[in-house]
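Subject: Interface between my chains keeps coming out wrong

I've been trying for a while to get a sensible model of this assembly. When I model each chain on its own everything looks fine, but I need the whole thing in one frame so I can look at the contacts. Pasting all components below, labels as-is. Any help appreciated, I'm running out of ideas.
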Amino acid sequence: MNTLITMTIIGPLLAAAAGMAFRRSARLRDISTLTGVASAAIASFGMLWQVSSNGATAVRVGAWNPELGIVLVVDLFAALVLPVALSVILVVEIFAFGQRRTAWGANPELTGPLLSVLTAGVSLAILTGDLFTLFVAFELILVSSYVLLTHQGQREQIRSGMTYVVMNLLASTLFLFGLAIVYAATGTVNIALLAERIPDLSEGVRIGIGMWFLVVFGTKAALFPLFSWLPDSYPTAPTTITAVFAGLLTKIGIYAMIRFHTLTGMDDLGPVLLIVAGITMLVGALGALAQNDIKRILSFHVISQIGYMLMGLGLFSVAGTTGAILFLVHHMPVKTVLFLVGGLIENHQGTSALDRSGGLVRSRPLIAFLFAIPALSLAGLPPFSGFVAKLAVIDAGVEGLSTSIVVCALVAGILTLLSMTKIWLGAFWGPSPETGSSTTSTALNRKIMTGATMLAVGGTLTISLFAGSIFDLSQEAAIQLINEDSYITLVLS
Amino acid sequence: MIWVLLAAHIVGIFAASYSGRSSMRTGLLVAAIAPALTTAWATTQLLKPNDTVYEMVWVQGLDLSLRFRVDSLAILMTILVSGIGALVFVYASGYFKPSADGGSHFPASLLLFSFSMLGLVLADSIWTLFIFWELTSVSSFLLVGFKNLDVDVRIAARRALLITGGGGLALLAGFLILADASNTTVLSNLEPISGPNAGIAAALLMFAAATKSAQMPFHIWLPGAMAAPTPVSAYLHSATMVKAGILLLASTSATFEDVAIWKPLGLTLGISTMLWGAFGALRHRDAKLILAWGTISQLGLLVTLLSVGTPKATFAAMSLLTAHAVFKAALFITVGEIDIRTGTRDIYELGGLTKSMPITFAVAAISAASMAGVPLLLGFAAKEAAIEAVLDLKGTELWLVGGAVIGGAVMTVAYSLRFVLGVFGPGPQTSVSPRRSAMTVPAVALGAASIAGYIFLGSVNSIVGPAVVELDEKANVYSLLRWPGFTPGLLTSLSVVIVGFLIGYSVSTRTEGANAPTAIGASFADRSINEVLTFARELIGRIQHGSLPVYLATMMTTASLAATPFVTAIDPDSLRRWDHVLQIPLGFGVVASAVAGAFVTTRLSAALTLGAVGIGVSGLFALHGAPDLALTQLLVETVVVVGFVIGLGRLSRRFPPVGGAWHATRMAVAVLGGIAVMVALIASASDPTGLPPVAALSEGAVEQGGGKNIVNVILTDIRALDTLGEVVVLATVAIGIMALAKSPKPEGRKAAQ
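Reply #2:
Try treating it as a single job with all components included. I did that and got this:
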């Protein structure tokens, strides 16, 4: 297990360093960064296999006891989310090979190394059992994503990057305050110890801590009313970058929230979470409807879908948490694929604006097919993973008698369907734009990009197909989170 | 076997998509294979009564499985769905030119629908039903929008999808409640349920069925869906998909028999739809729309009969459903042929086709007569059963339902006659292009089925009878009668035909100059959709305005509000005023510098006040016995201030001015944030449940870490991973700065694109 963990955290960092060192040789640079991410992804599948067959493991970094040092915890929740997250990065990196030589591509000298840093940050955030290390992981993710967002130096990117980085830095500051608060109240930042000590705090402090971290993680996860950084910044980045951001970043926020709020027993916050979840779903979906650009529409759906995961968490039941985890696992690849298809569209016709698009069903039926599957999945239609995930969450809502949130979820569902038809009507149907394609890519580039997208669609279909097993794993992970004892024993003994 | 057939459909979808790339006709014929095979299989199943269940678990934890049941009802529906499907594919291969555009996706989409509908009629679990139900909506959307170069077509497709999709969500919710209340997801195991939840589930399911089966007021998508190519209209929007709601009602009506609202709701929907639909069919002049409104009316009749709920009415409903699928598909097919061969569907422009299109005329006349319930045809026997069923009712119900059904039947006869006279009757001699046998063969087959069904009524009974028994065991005593004798029922239906004939004749002669009625409902639906879009734009314009300071203020206020629970936990006794007397001046200095920072107007003084805050803080560190921390902080502050001063040279000296009210708001938010953090820290320190492991740290640092400076050991050993992370953060920032410095000027970048 130690080797696997090293491969997911240190491996990508070494790859990033190698990538920077080999700046003169494109081939060496690409090989080293791709190897770093690929081996991390493979290692993460190894973890899933180990955890599901031999049970969870906790590793004490430097063999320091958990009261002092850092613990990395590979429980089922982590082992389930990590492979999906890293596969997403890997697929996007392959896509980037095709895209980078076109006008829309990101700077290849930097994307590889920075995506590797991002990979390390994501792995660390998912695996850590320590709140301070989580802060460090968030920093890693934040700076690497900020540089990825702005490194092309376009005016629009710098402007929106400002919103992105300033809001997220404020969230980091609030996170630091939160660490101080938690440390003052419990004398530790180890999550297992917090799971022991937070429930014993006076009600005001306990709820206060829960609320404070709701704001911190909620900003990362782009909940209402803290999401403003997202729709402004995401669409301006190169598609590959946005695809990673959309697939992962907010999900790390909701991941942290699921882990923290379940383990520390914040059940009292349920109603607050459900209200926020309902508003987030609806506002996100309405936001998507207000847009006229594929990337902007999809960006708002990132927000809306987070609402469903928060809804699952807010029910604070095994069924609800199962739904939230399943939704998380389903959502990461689906959202990424949608952005990748957005990239294909942009590459094909030179824009992602709907009013300058059209006719792709005729001119590029394959793109239409590749869009349709994740779009239906996003709208929660069967037989795709999105349906199973939505059913799991809504079923838990019905079970928990939370009628109003169920109604919100259903209304958001129809709004999502409406905005998917908006993309379909605008980009795929209707007359083709007169200007024609402005693509500068070669046939090989197109093949790589399409191939990577097909791979990702295949991934989402695999998740749909094995939704049963993934549900079982999510349920087991949820049980481990809701009954925090197994986690505490795992880490402390 | 079911799996093989379903798999054959999926393989067929890809095969059709591939072979359709070169020629639409090949694609369609390839697509016809799977439905043809399925029909053949279903026909063999007719002889042996069976009741096999096929199940494949998908998600155990949610009771989600593909569960199919092959019983008499499923066989009957399979024959209708796949049989008509196969015919429609053949028909479409004549309808489209071989070189028609869209061969790569039209046959595939149509087969996708065929697949979905097959799964729907075979489903034996609510989730299986739901999965295929939604798939039919999606494939219908793709097919309605086939001619999507036209904006009206796109809008119509969207309208249909959203209405049926909304119904789908209601179905989802209804099924969840139903599964919860009845503890099963297996359709054939559903037991009657009651209670308030049952009422909600009933209403939701009724709503879902109404959207799918085009009941008032949700019928508005169906006329719009006529924008689809006619093979699609014949198959989806008359013969099969619109029956999905009917099937849903039929298979759940036993479950809801104790629910008070079920029957009145169904009767209201059914009767109003039946009458309004028939009225619509009498008003329109597009032959296809006449048929579409006729379909709406017939669907209303089916809902009415199912809501009546007597075994006899259920029997009549299923018989009518069968007869309707046959004659309506035939009628649409003839209209499509007329459209292709004459170039119009307007009954005021058509005429004299009896001679130029004799086969088409024969099929249309027979099928329309079957629709009108004229004796010696399948439709007659079914209509007769329906009239018998409603005449059996008592009291108010007899008058209300009986009157409505008979009125609807009269209007049906009228619009059937108007259709035939309008299209084929005297009028301008429309010029006609040559016949295509691929279109004629399916038309003749379906037209002949209406006659054959009557001649071999015994066989029809042996198929429909057991199917109805699956729904209602008490229905086994009923069968379709070739000639009922002179019962009140027969006399009623004969007079219906005569009266309807007279009305039909009169409306079809005096119609010149009338315009097509406007689609009020459809434009209302589109307006509502647009209003949602406008609302969204206004709302988001207000929320996502792009002003970073406002975002930050929102965020800080939210965080401050989130800290309110801490207020209750403050314990004044736990407050220590100070540890060291020097903390007073230092603390005061920090606060004063921070406040000053908010009021200064030049950038330089802002940098200096912030520097003062940092230096004050490092003093506080020093007082706490952390000289190295204090030193680090001091260095950082100095470097930052120097950096600021260097960087400021490029910016204007003063901050841009900020308006009074906004300035005050910002101050308030800042003060609120400060108070919130203070309150949170005081509260959290007042009654800790654990203390920092100071002793363990000192011991561990020396013994295990081998260093006497605890901070160093923490940074380089105990929490080395965090340090590594922060080092990478700094390196990444450096890379980012480098990249920005080297990146070309924005203008140059734009030109490169």
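Reply #3:
Confirming on my end. Chain B is about 70% helix and 0% strand.
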